[in-house]
Amino acid sequence: MRVPVGVSGRHIHLTQEHADILFGKGHSFEKLKPLRQPGQFAYKETVTVTGPKGSIPNIRVLGPLRSYSQLEISKTDSFVLGIDPPVRDSGDIEGTPGIVVTGPKGSINLDKGVILPYRHLHLHPSDADELGVKDKDLVAVRTSGERQVILENVLCRVHPNYRLEFHIDTDEANASGLRTGDIVKVISVDETHELGTFKQQKVLVLNCGSSSVKYKLFDMPSEKIRMQGNLTRTKDQPLKDTLDPIFAQVGNQIDIIAHRIVHGADLFPHSVKITDEVIRQVESIGHLAPLHNPVNLEGVQAALEQYPEIPQIAVFDTSFHQTMPPTSYLYAIPYEYYEKHKIRKYGFHGMSHRYVMERAEQILEIPAEKLRLISCHIGNGVSITAIRNGESYDTSMGMTPLAGLTMGTRSGNIDPGIIPYMQQLEGLETTEEVIDILNTKSGLLGISGISNDVRVLLKKAKEGDRRAQLALDLYVVKLHKYIGLYLARLNGADALIFTAGIGENSPEIREKICLGLEYAGVYLDPKANWESEGERMISSKFSPVKVLVIPTNEEIIMARDAYWITVAGSTPASAAQ
């Protein structure tokens, strides 16, 4: 949104009582000119203000008269006067310094009321709705011209009587190269990185799988969920049949669609707008995730047919891990296979690891660039990521989601020589049959022979089932080993994070994983671990390494990326890079 500038010179607001003292009882003020805000104007009358060090004459009186007297000056003025006023919103004068005010008929000694005015934005409610802000929110503005700057902490003032205008004092206007009548652009800012212009958009997030379609409709940038659901489908049911009821429900309410794409290889270091070329590239790497990418693309095609004019964004599970160094992603096989076929580790659950990293940054109140984090995404699929300086440094999953830790039905890392050996002993015709066993019949299910559900296995283990206990022990030991590995890779850690279904909801598994990590500074608070719920810290207050439980939210990462790509041309993650 483009907004006109009003440079605010030093001025004073007066009560009727103070006006009577300064100008004489019954004085009739003469209007000099109307101001942009309806009902506000400058009088011809002026006063002189005097502080401990000096005086400033010809301070303009603004009308109408108010219930409080207040002097608004610049920082330079405060040096001249010898006072130190705070930056405040108009009317917030408690605890502010006073000043001597002199008029043609008398003087007053204000005991409070001198402020440096907040740079602020006058907004009509319709303007605020368009920007997705409310009264007292903070935004930022970007100037144009030769001296382009971003001014943060701009206070939003919303009222039906307001007319759109950006107010700034003379000091900041001079430093920014602004004059009254110039135009600035309202933006949102993440630290020092420009993200984009505010604009309300409705973002539909789609996660199309072989057995279900999850969806959420977000209001952005407020991130309010308007509707959501999880529809099941059979393998022989066309995906379009599952998507059509969703499209019917959201109708024409949507502005952007975000699609989860599991595998982006090294082609997509961040989310991108979907084009014919992007579709071709995703198709070219479909063999890396044959169970996921084809159905993800099927969802893209169905949405493009239904909404051909709406921007559609691809968000990749692998993007977050594209910051890994070669020592983390290369396999010790002939280098030519990496060069020719891109055989390397890619990692997954990137949206989840990225989300919990961002939340940890806020919870710990430490910039991600200064944190060493070990993020444990523990669900039916399991991965651990070492995060250094806000970036993925190493992760447990590999070229495919089969690698790494013991999972619900996946084996995790095994000796590759087992694959032809199993094929030979079991009389299997193809390697794909062995891979299917490793993907769907292994892990907790394979070891226990009972279930891939941790809750079921915990119950069975308490009843004395030996294989259920063995499956859980193996599961925990693998997690424990990877945490130890990443403690070494990061030279220690500031926090250990648990997320996803089991990580969020199983205090017993968390306790088993952390047992023995005391040497590295990990100390659980048993009560916080067992009795609390939701997002929280479960480590002892004396624990050098903090332990956090953070419910993951991959959908909000998708919605944010889709929104910022559409309104600003880049994601928060890519802007930071």
UniProtKB/TrEMBL annotation:
Binding residues annotated for ATP, in chain numbering: K214, H377, I378, G379, N380, G381, D453, V454, R455, G501, I502, G503, E504, N505
UniProt pathway annotation: Metabolic intermediate biosynthesis; acetyl-CoA biosynthesis; acetyl-CoA from acetate: step 1/2
GO molecular function, one term: magnesium ion binding
Residues carrying the site annotation Transition state stabilizer: H349, R410
A biological-process GO annotation: acetyl-CoA biosynthetic process
CC annotations in GO: cytoplasm
Record: residues binding Mg(2+): N207, E554
Superkingdom of source: Bacteria
Localization in the cell: Cytoplasm
Catalysed transformations (reactions): acetate + ATP = acetyl phosphate + ADP
Pfam families membership: Acetate_kinase, PTAC
This protein's UniProt keywords: ATP-binding, Cytoplasm, Kinase, Magnesium, Metal-binding, Nucleotide-binding, Transferase
Cofactor names: Mg(2+); Mn(2+)
E.C. number: 2.7.2.1
Cross-referenced Gene3D superfamilies: 3.30.420.40
Chain residues that bind substrate: R260
CDD domains recorded: ASKHA_NBD_AcK_PK
Cofactor note: Mg(2+). Can also accept Mn(2+).
Active site per database record: D317 (proton donor/acceptor)
PANTHER family documented for this protein: ACETATE KINASE, ACETATE KINASE-RELATED
Functional note: Catalyzes the formation of acetyl phosphate from acetate and ATP. Can also catalyze the reverse reaction.
Sequence similarity: Belongs to the acetokinase family.
Quaternary structure note: Homodimer.
Name of this chain's protein: Acetate kinase
The gene coding this protein: ackA
